[in-house]
């Protein structure tokens, strides 16, 4: 087994506190009393009194976002309203994310998750793994300079050396139980993992010996309490 110390959080950023994480990307709302970590979109405000993670769509466009056409590749086949961004143009991509990191830091978030790191795996060869990881490392350096911890988003393909070189402090894993990938995150990050499942039952998810300590079962649309389909349970 890989050593968990390989990916200890950077010394100048706050690690995840443990406890219960609430993944609120669909719509922000007051969390339950036992929640210690809240993840929200970069366009919202952090929840006072908890560890707050800022969602950043770092490697693809947000739906409707205006981006320099020179950076755009084809739409993501999994998310056709989002375009892949050309990771060969590292400086331009880091500049784009710097604006979002500044907003997250000024708003008072403690950390960021850099989404769609795994875009190269869906790019049909348009994106290069090495370019992508170089961009991720530069973005992580920029976030650390603002005092923000940085989360690896999905991408179980990464090796321990790659994660250490990039400088990720924790991970956010979607459906790692569903796809039998949880150990790929806990082996590298230990208890510094937020896991979100969208299918299955809480009983079977929590019985998984590899599932991260901070695992929750949410509705796929991540709607607020009181909305049709809302679901939020945790191990």
From TrEMBL:
Membrane-crossing residue ranges in chain numbering: none
Residues annotated as domain Glycoside-hydrolase family GH114 TIM-barrel: 22-221
InterPro entries: Aldolase_TIM, GH, GH114_TIM-barrel
Stated name of the protein: Glycoside-hydrolase family GH114 TIM-barrel domain-containing protein
